[in-house]
Amino acid sequence: VSTGNGCGHTLLTPHSGTLSSKNYPGTYPNHTVCRWQLQAPSGTFLLLAFGDVDLEPSEHCAHSSLLLADPQAGTAYAGPYCRNSVPSAPLLVTNSSTVTVLFNSTSHRSGRGLLLSYSTSQHPGTGGASRGMQRHPWDVVYCPAGCKDIHGDIWGNPSQGYRDTSVLCKAAVHAGVIADELGGQVTLSREKGITLYESAFANGLLSKRPGATTMCPAGVPRFPACCFLFSACDDELEVAAFNASSWWHEVDTLGQDRAWVAERAALGTTGHSWAAEPGAEAAWLELDLGTRRNVTGIITKGSSEQHDYYVTSYYISSSRDGKNWRPYRGSSGQEDKVFEGNADSHGEVSNAFIPPIIARYVR
């Protein structure tokens, strides 16, 4: 939970999250305060990684400060911090499942503010090795939740861990390794490979062409200066039948009929695609996979015909019997997930299901 007028981007989940001051990485505003209350599952403890703490210096950090406290014991874990009193280490391992993060500012002229990320002892790796664990620095990195929509400089290395602006964490979301809502572990690898490839749009992120000095495995969606391993799709699922809420019966200017029926929704179909009846509300397209399958993702594309049609966003629901439907809510499980669709009528957009769907029917 976050309260106050000095809170910036905040994404808090039970196992990981990220938080920042208002306007970060720009100068934080005067006379603001923010309180974040972090709560981990019972039986675990919190690990906090300091991504950036840049508060204007003052005696005893009286003008702007960061303080971490245990609300149950009423004691301070660390701080107050400001520019002339910074954390001694990038990682703070607490002994509690609850931590309150307090940030306040008075009048000042400079300072980016702060950015922190956290994980729990169930999911260590945000800041390197945790208590009782030693990992090879290029083995596993734990990425905090909420990296997809963060803007800022890339920061991090294997010994310090990665904050949510890390290129590795965004690349992991892009490739469908982790869900942005929860974060997760990413296995790293440095390998030689091709340096140029076509960019792709997946899971709400656009991959980029690496520079000439970047060496990454061929065929892996990736961002500049990073390589990582992930499980690709086993195969493309065959669709036994298509169904739809409606379809468009078009009559062109010459009086010729054109049927935009559900069967034309297959990705490789040439010519026009499926389209719902104009003006139809709550339109849906249904895929019958013939038998219960493990569905790990979906690729969508618009119509390449003269009509510039495409779906910009959509929901997913699934069924095992074609009668009882369950909306897809992703890893958070709190509300129906909205998938980002296409931005034009010709490009393909991929979205991963994390966790996968076990079903015969998908809408």
Quick recap:
The protein is mainly beta.
Count of individual helical segments: 1
Helix content: under 10%
Work out the radius of gyration.
Answer: 24 Å
Provide the β-strand percentage band.
Answer: 35-45%
Disulfide bonds: 7-34
Subcellular location: Membrane
Protein name: DCBD1 protein
Membrane topology: Single-pass type I membrane protein
Describe the overall structure.
It is a single-pass type I membrane protein. One of its GO terms (cellular component) is plasma membrane. Residues 139-207 form the LCCL domain. Residues 227-363 form the F5/8 type C domain. The protein is an all-beta fold. It has 1 helix and 26 strands. Strand 6 and strand 7 (75-81) form a beta hairpin. The two termini are 34 Å apart.
Descriptive labels:
363 residues, five-stranded antiparallel beta sheet
Helix and strand topology:
Layout: E1 2-4, E2 7-12, E3 16-21, E4 32-39, E5 46-54, E6 64-70, E7 75-81, E8 91-93, E9 98-105, E10 113-120, E11 140-143, E12 156-157, E13 161-162, H1 167-174, E14 184-188, E15 201-202, E16 205-206, E17 228-229, E18 241-244, E19 248-251, E20 257-260, E21 285-301, E22 313-314, E23 317-319, E24 326-327, E25 339-340, E26 348-362
Parallel strand pairs: 15-26
Antiparallel strand pairs: 1-4, 2-3, 3-10, 4-9, 5-8, 5-10, 6-7, 6-9, 11-14, 12-13, 14-17, 15-16, 18-21, 19-20, 21-26, 22-25, 23-24, 23-26
